[in-house]
């Protein structure tokens, strides 16, 4: 290198100085307009976040200020009452909700995972009917819940299945409602298992079923579990379809899955209390909202924890 | 290296005058074409692969080496649009015969992939997976130890067999995949560029391993690395891309197949010479 020696040196030094001056100029503050525009945009985005949070915050605040006075063991231990709001509680509704979601899980896990496995591992995607099934599952996930209620009424409570207005029928209806969600989540989890794992397994002489059973499913279980929990928490909060398939607003005894005397669920019972004119019952409704929110937040947090804890990074 | 030349049946012009038979054949390919959705990826491959030999497939990218390799244990069956034409004999049996179960084929003809692909399980369970799939329940500890020793990995992992396989380095992962493969005691091991994702030290270990393994297994290896082919293989097949007249379709074609020493020192075909001497490719 002779760039800084000999007769060339002074000119080079000038060139370097010039370059330095330009660099310094370029590094200086950006134009004012840019700064303002940046700030406005960032502010708008923050506002969007705040609006979303404000809804949740308002809900929590209102529920706690109005409902916390009756929080206690009586709230979950006592059946509802029309005459004595101070003794009324949610016991049948809580038991009903627990049985409902237990039924949902029993139905939705095998069927949802099975459907997802078929679509991901077996279905030939070049066939038009498989594409049709895929599109329709996406559509089903967006169908309003009341429509599932009508379906449940027509096909499960009456019609072909003819189960009557029993808790199991409500459970089955809710299961159908969240089934597309489970299928979609399970498919994503299954798809996230890289093909190299399947190939490695098949190259060892494992059958397709052995590969799915021992490699793909275990690797996909955290994702599937997360999807199931989120689906169940959706089922837990649904009211509209239950009203159509027989959930009664006022039940004072512990429901059973196949009992014909009626059943209730948390959101239905909250609705029942909320529409009564007496303020005491409305307080009870708010307390019920707290219970539900706590359960839902716990379930969703567990789902997030599960996903972060067991998610396989490839 | 033994001074024996394999029987070459590529094209008449490359056929040598005196070609002693190879000791024992494990594969015989007769006019193999592989098509994806009707478009040929390799055409008219005819060659014989010797038992307990290391056979290298070399050639530029896109010449169909991996495609050809995947025919040998019917991994191409996993691609619905793939189709294999011609005759492929394995110890004299038609590998694509009507009663041949690809699952059984893969139990006999194992495969090691380009990128190490350990299962997200413990080191032990990775190696035990194959035997377990075959229905083996007891004596797994011995099988695992033997396979890990066979893959020259035992000393590095014997104290941490319950650790997740992902905690191993890339080179160790690849040796784990080799251990996993030999744990089912296959007859043939296919290796698809097994060192392309590894550093030179790990590569050296795997090359040493291959030379050890050929005492027990027949090995077919696809490699981009010509030094590797020269170091480990007994026979080398050179494939090249061929274009049709309109330069519209391209497929792989076997140019020359011979003893490795001959391919690298005195190839019969000018194109082989250009490729192995680094002039093209």
CATH superfamily descriptor of the domain at 92-310 in chain A: MetI-like
Percent in helix of chain B: 25-40%
| Largest interface summary | A-B, 20 and 27 residues
Q: CATH class of the domain at 92-310 in chain A, anyone?
A: Mainly Alpha
CATH topology of chain B: Rossmann fold
The residue-averaged pLDDT of chain B reads 87
| Beta content of chain B | 25-35%
Distance between the termini of chain B: 27 Å
The SSE order of chain B reads EEEHEEHEHHHHEHEHEEHH
Largest sheet composition of chain B: 10 strands, mixed
Q: Report low-confidence residues of chain B grouped into runs of 5 or more.
A: 1-20
How many strands in all of chain A?
Answer: 0
The number of helical elements of chain B comes to 10
Cα shape of chain B: globular
Helix content of chain A: over 70%
CATH architecture label of chain B:
3-Layer(aba) Sandwich
- Rg of chain B: 19 Å
How does this structure look, described?
The complex is a heterodimer of chains A (314) and B (281). Chain A has helices at 9-27, 32-67, 73-77, 91-122, 128-140, 145-157, 167-191, 195-203, 208-237, 240-244, 266-274, 279-310. Chain A is an all-alpha fold and 314 residues long. Chain A has a domain at 92-310: Orthogonal Bundle (MetI-like fold). In chain A, helix 6 (145-157) packs across helix 7 (167-191) and helix 8 packs antiparallel against helix 9 (208-237). Chain A is flat, with a radius of gyration of 29 Å. The relative contact order of chain A is 0.13. Chain B is α/β, with parallel strands linked by helices and 281 residues long. Chain B has one domain: Rossmann fold, CATH 3.40.50.300. Chain B is 31% helix and 26% strand. Chain B has ten helices and ten strands. In chain B, strands 5-4-1-2-10-9-3-8-7-6 form a ten-stranded mixed β-sheet, with helices on both faces. In chain B, helix 7 links the parallel strand 7 (188-192) and strand 8 (218-222). In chain B, helix 3 packs across helix 4 (140-150) and helix 3 (123-133) runs parallel beside helix 6. The A-B interface holds A 124, 126, 194, 196-197, 199-207, 210, 214-215, 218-219, 312 and B 73, 75, 78, 80, 103-104, 106-108, 110-111, 113, 115, 117-121, 129-130, 132-134, 177, 180-181, 184.
């Amino acid at each position: 290198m002779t760039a800084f020696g000999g007769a060339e040196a002074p000119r080079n030094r000038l060139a370097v100085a010039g370059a330095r001056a330009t660099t310094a100029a370029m590094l200086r503050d950006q134009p004012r307009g840019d700064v303002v525009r940046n700030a406005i945009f960032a502010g708008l985005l923050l506002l969007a976040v705040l609006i979303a949070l404000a809804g949740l915050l308002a809900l929590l605040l209102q529920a706690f200020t109005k409902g916390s006075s009756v929080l206690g063991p009586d709230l979950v231990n006592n059946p509802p009452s029309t005459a004595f709001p101070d003794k009324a509680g949610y016991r049948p509704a809580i038991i009903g909700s627990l049985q409902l979601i237990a039924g949902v899980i029993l139905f939705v896990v095998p069927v949802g995972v099975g459907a997802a496995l078929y679509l991901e591992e077996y279905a030939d995607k070049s066939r038009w009917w498989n594409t049709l099934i895929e599109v329709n599952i996406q559509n089903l996930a967006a169908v309003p819940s009341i429509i599932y209620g009508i379906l449940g009424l027509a096909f499960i409570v009456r019609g072909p299945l003819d189960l009557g207005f029993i808790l199991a029928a409500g459970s089955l209806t809710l299961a159908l409602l969240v089934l597309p969600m489970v299928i979609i989540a399970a498919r994503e989890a299954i798809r996230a298992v890289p093909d190299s794992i399947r190939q490695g397994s098949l190259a060892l002489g494992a059958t397709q079923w052995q590969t799915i059973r021992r490699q793909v499913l275990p690797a996909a279980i955290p994702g599937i579990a997360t999807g199931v929990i989120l689906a169940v928490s959706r089922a837990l909060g649904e009211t509209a379809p239950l009203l159509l398939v027989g959930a009664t607003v006022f039940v004072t005894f512990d429901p059973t899955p196949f009992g014909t005397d009626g059943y209730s669920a948390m959101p239905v019972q909250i609705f029942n209390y909320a529409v009564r004119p007496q303020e005491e019952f409305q307080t009870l409704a708010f307390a019920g909202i707290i219970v539900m929110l706590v359960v839902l937040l716990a379930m969703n947090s567990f789902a997030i924890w599960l996903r972060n804890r067991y998610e396989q990074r490839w | 290296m033994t001074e024996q030349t394999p029987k070459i049946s590529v094209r008449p012009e490359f056929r040598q005058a005196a070609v002693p038979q190879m000791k024992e054949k494990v594969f015989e390919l007769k006019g193999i074409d592989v098509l994806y959705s009707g478009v040929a990826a390799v055409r008219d491959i005819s060659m014989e692969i010797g038992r307990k030999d290391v056979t290298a497939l070399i050639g530029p990218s896109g010449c169909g080496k991996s495609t050809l390799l995947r025919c040998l244990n019917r991994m191409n069956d996993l691609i619905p649009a793939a189709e294999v034409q011609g005759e492929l004999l394995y110890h004299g049996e038609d590998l694509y015969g009507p009663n041949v179960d690809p699952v059984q084929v893969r139990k006999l003809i194992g495969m090691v992939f380009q990128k190490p692909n350990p299962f997200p399980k413990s080191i032990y369970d990775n190696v035990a997976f194959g035997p377990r799939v075959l229905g083996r329940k007891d004596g797994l500890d011995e099988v695992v130890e033997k396979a890990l020793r066979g893959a020259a990995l035992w000393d590095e992992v014997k104290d941490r067999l319950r650790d997740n396989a992902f905690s191993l380095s890339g080179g160790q992962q690849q040796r784990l995949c080799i251990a996993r493969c030999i744990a089912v005691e296959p007859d043939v091991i296919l290796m698809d560029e097994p060192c392309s994702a590894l550093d030179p030290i790990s590569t050296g270990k795997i090359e040493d391993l291959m030379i050890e393994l050929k005492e027990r297994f027949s090995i077919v290896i696809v490699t981009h690395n010509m030094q590797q082919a020269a170091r480990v293989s007994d026979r080398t097949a050179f494939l090249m891309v061929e274009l049709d007249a309109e330069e519209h379709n391209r497929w792989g074609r076997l140019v020359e197949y011979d003893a490795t020493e001959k391919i690298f020192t005195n190839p019969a075909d000018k194109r082989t010479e250009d490729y192995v001497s680094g002039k093209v490719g």
